[in-house]
Specification:
By secondary structure, the chain is of the alpha+beta class. Strands 1-6-7-5 form a four-stranded antiparallel beta sheet. Strands 2-3-4-8 form a four-stranded antiparallel beta sheet, with helices on both faces. Strands 9-10 form a two-stranded antiparallel ribbon. It has helices at 9-23, 36-39, 45-49, 51-54, 128-135, 146-158, 164-169, 179-189, 202-221, and strands at 28-33, 58-65, 68-75, 78-85, 91-93, 100-106, 111-115, 122-126, 228-229, 235-236, 259-261, 270-272. The mean pLDDT is 90.
Length: 281
Amino acid sequence: MNETFLLECPEINLISDLLKKDLVGKKILRIELYDYYSNNKPSGSDNFIHQNYLDNFIVKNVNSYGRLIYFDIENKLGQLHIISKLRFSGSWTRFKTKNVLMEIVLDDNTSIYFSDPSKLATVSFETKESLNKEINKGVDPLKVSVVDYFDKIHKKARNTTMTISRFLFSIKNFYGIGHYLRAETLYRSKIYPYKYTQTLTREQLFTICNNLRDIATESYNNGGAQNIKYSNDIELSGNYRTQFKVFEKRYNDDNKKIIWTVGKKDKNPIFWCPEVQEKNE
């Protein structure tokens, strides 16, 4: 398995950083819709894209949370948010691709492009209330400290019949966690992926949360786990992919076999090492 996978919070944070450095303080002149979006306009875009409403909209900030990247934009009428979910193949770039869906034209005679060949990525134009609903879904381990969220997560874990593999994947619990963060976290924590959360000790769950934060941080600091081109001279390195211990591997560093399985109640397969992540652990 060596393919593009769902973007996770480290990659989303890195793309957000690039956009923030590039766009904050710039004025939006107009927005153009292409391809699929020409006939299927993004949610909330009708009034926003009207030229009179665009007047003097300035990008005040760019942030991320979980799998969201959102622009805070403001004019004399108030503030709105452009919210995007990149999923598998969505992207924000400084160059136009053949799969471009939306172009934001800026006052410095440049543009930023939202593209996706799969059409699964989404962008919408929302109020503060709608944004708050999105960012309150689950915990982004790069945005919230373990101490601040652990008691709430521990309570959820004690009151569900999910396996820990499925629990980490649920956006009601964690937002921005995908295949590699989940696999690497449980491997480092030496936890059997199909262990039910009700049977985890408080100490085991705390270890999982700490390792999740550490691995997400390591990935962020090493350019994420996917090579993503942003402009002609800037791209994410994806260097963390070379540091995987279990994800996409056949054997670990000690030559112990790694398998790729789907649990009876889990929809998503996971890489794990039976000799390290034993059932009775």
